[in-house]
Amino acid sequence: MPVSLGEWRVRIGTFMRRRRKEYDYHYFWRKLHNLMKKAKNAEPPKENNNPECNISRTGSSPDANRSPSNTTGQSASSYNVNLNTAQTGPSRDVNNGKGNASSPTLSQSDGPECDVSESGFPRDVNNPGHNDVSHSESSCAQNSGFSIEKETNPVPGITVVTFPVPQPCVEDELDNKDIAINLMSHEYTPKSAQISKTDKPEVDTSESHSHVPADVRGETDRINRDKEETSDSAPSGIEDQSLDLSPKHRIDATNNTDQRTSSIKEVAEYHDSPIYPVLGSGTTSGEADETKGNDCPDMTNILLLRSGDVEQNPGPNDKPGNLTDLELYLLADSMDPSDFRKVGLALGFNEAELSRFEKDQMGNTLYAIYKMLYEWRKRVCDSEAREALVVTLHRIKLVQLADSVQKGQVGDHIPSMTEKEIQLVAEEVKHYLAIHLCQIQADPLNSELVLEFKRIFTNLTLMEEDKGTKLKTPLLYDDLLRTKVNGTYPKRLLVEGEGGVGKTTFCAKIAWDWIHGKAYQDFKLVLVILLRKTEGKTVGEIVKSYLSDNNPVTAKQLDKHIFSNPDDVFLVLDGLDEFAVDLDSNQQVALITLNHLFKSGTVLITSRQWRSDEIRKNADLRKVFAFIAVEGFSAENLSSYITKFFHPDAASSEDLNRFISNNDVIRENMAPYPIYTAMLCIMWKEFDGERREAMSKLQTFSQLFNQMIDFLVDHHLSKHIPSSGIVEGKLGDHCSDIRPHLIYIGWIAFQGLLERRLVFTEEEFQSYPESIDVGCKVGVLTKEKKILPRRDRRNNPKSVVQSVQFPHKLFQEYLSGMYLASLYNTNRNEYDRLIANIIQEAVEYRYLLHFTSAQQKGVGLDIVSRLIALNQKRQPVRIGDGFIVDVAYESQDQAVAKSVADHLSTDSSKTLEINFNMQAHTVSGHTFIMNHRDVVRKV
Ligand SMILES: Nc1ncnc2c1ncn2[C@@H]1O[C@H](COP(=O)(O)OP(=O)(O)OP(=O)(O)O)[C@@H](O)[C@H]1O
């Protein structure tokens, strides 16, 4: 619960009465001043090579508790449709012999082998395009390609469907979004009303938050718009969505600009459980700092600080409390790397243990020291740790460090930022985010079509999970930071969503609102960090890279400022699933994610689901996180997006809207995802009548990608091939010239996925330099010039480096799938080796498996048989049947469907439950394979 200032004053009074000493600021300040002078004059400590270790060990439990991220399960709970399937046919003999490889390490050295001569691009079986396929497995190609033709239903079977619940629902009519509405708890009372709006600058279309009632106009009074925005006469839905979102509980943070101050607040930050009781209760892996917040003996300081009535650092803190994670972190940062072993030995570690710390942290001494200190702290009693560390540091003559630990002043050597510096940093961060984040690439494959944020941004449907029931209720964007979890405003928010549902764009929206003074104004800094680009850097280092060259603030100052002023900073970490680092690595961003650092600061993390399980499955983290799902566009917002996309061509937008509303599969499966809607808009715009007709046959994401890439290749060729080079009006030969490049790019894409890397260097393409060029021209790659910061230029002769990326991770996954499937024909051994490892991590590589299985029948069959085998072994990962059904659906091959149907019929559970949590895609998948099952329909 937020605590009012008045209440703080009462509490402070209580603590003041309990205090033993008189509070004398001048006395303490003089004392600190003298100590600092003394410290400066102190001789450098002499090294002691023979430390004796007196620290007694009390046992350790060092295991970082990394939740298994490799499991998933389609929720088998609940209601609605039961399709009881009776097994009639013999169980299919699935070939699972290849699915047993267990090595998780994938070779990254094997280049692609492109069987170019075998087939041209549009005709190749690996690219189930819209042209003829001269291959024995052509049925799949036809099914998964541009012209989609299904085989006839081989086994119609008996059909009896059960609807055991009061509200019958025919599976054809299942609408996930409606289901979501129905799932609204009846206890749910709208927190605020529907925002009636026109979510676009110029286009006259109304858009609404789906499922969100009534009006919150009254709240708009609180909006502090900047002048520019107020005078902007263009109506924008963004404005409507942009109320003052700052959490109302936040206490006005006292500026921490005094050069002398910081350490008390740093310590205080970690002892603030009375303010956020839920947050204070949780740490990861049962670590020992769990209850420190409540034990803090120096609560007076914290309360005084919180009250805003007093100087933040009234002098040395002679009772700095238990050693905090942040102190350990700053201590590691302050320590000379060459002291690592000396300190480690003195703390009781042996050489082997120290080497392990170094090795685990891959030579990063800061993290190795931190890890060592962290492990050491587990071995000693919490209340004795500070004293023990001080004694040890003194003994090995690290006097300054010992003193700073003793006084709770670790990190004070880094100058605090002045108010002016903080403001300048904020301005430059805003400038950076406005340019680099807040522009939407409306055409995922055309980096030139970048639209201003407010021109195209469209509201997304947000749902909040009730941790007890797992039911989701609608959440207003405006209530993002105002939603209470167990009566408390959460400081950690996990925003989950499928690929392309709009998570990154959602982060951009937060930045946009902060930049334009529409929300989050209680925060001096809103820092959006793309985790795919962090490369093990600290937050300060990342923010430093946002600043201009001549900004003198250092990364360390930024780090210190951020961690010392958690109330002033909103950290938005986008793409946990793209974060290459293990969460138990002790890297700063990982520590923040695990709630070890920046505990009282507000952090929003976005992720695809497979990785967010690392948070969900950790009992301690579950307590502190609020779980929010991004569900993409509602029907209304879809229509609004399309109108904005085609503006001012109202006829086209109406046509596409009509087309989507008449096409169940597209409406249910694709349109809620902004990225697929964007692709549909592009194709609709470019395609003529005949090709538009073909669009209506689209069933799967893979087909949509396939069409998109076909379209891009055609588009590229028509621009770059002189008309004299086109024989009989066909681009076929030229298309086949492009395919090897795409396969090669797919190989690089695949290597990147294995390393969770989405940004590449030009050098990585050096074996096929032409491919990068073709990829950029076609649109499946984008090059970005990056001007190196001045400090990095010393080590790099180039002042500008080129990074190469895919327009979106889903494109990287699609091209990886093309590469992997191509190996099936050209290098089966390599295919077997790679796919065996991928299957072991099936949940992470879900989209890759979808796209790969869609490439050709043999691959689809192979993948589902491996998945089935994996499920049957139940070791180490069990994926749900829904996962396999999804893969079968993407393959659009009847043989694959049959194989999965046989498996489901022989599986122990013969009842198909379609519940509210089931994705529309999975429901379509069940419908797809249903032809091969004998279904008993019970009413
Ligand atoms: N709210 C929105 N308004 C308009 N367009 C959007 C919106 N959200 C997403 N898009 C479009 O969809 C594309 C993909 O969205 P985004 O990158 O945010 O998805 P994501 O959930 O982060 O995907 P992934 O998990 O694969 O990284 C964007 O480039 C943009 O074109």
TrEMBL record:
Residues 53-110, 136-146 have a biased composition (Polar residues). It comes from Strongylocentrotus purpuratus (Purple sea urchin). SUPFAM superfamilies: DEATH domain (SSF47986), P-loop containing nucleoside triphosphate hydrolases (SSF52540). Residues 197-230 have a biased composition (Basic and acidic residues). This is Uncharacterized protein. Pfam families: Death (PF00531), NACHT (PF05729). InterPro entries: DEATH-like_dom_sf, Death_dom, NACHT_NTPase, P-loop_NTPase. Residues 40-152, 190-260, 274-295 are annotated as: Disordered. Residues 491-608 form the NACHT domain. GO terms for biological process: signal transduction. Residues 325-409 form the Death domain.
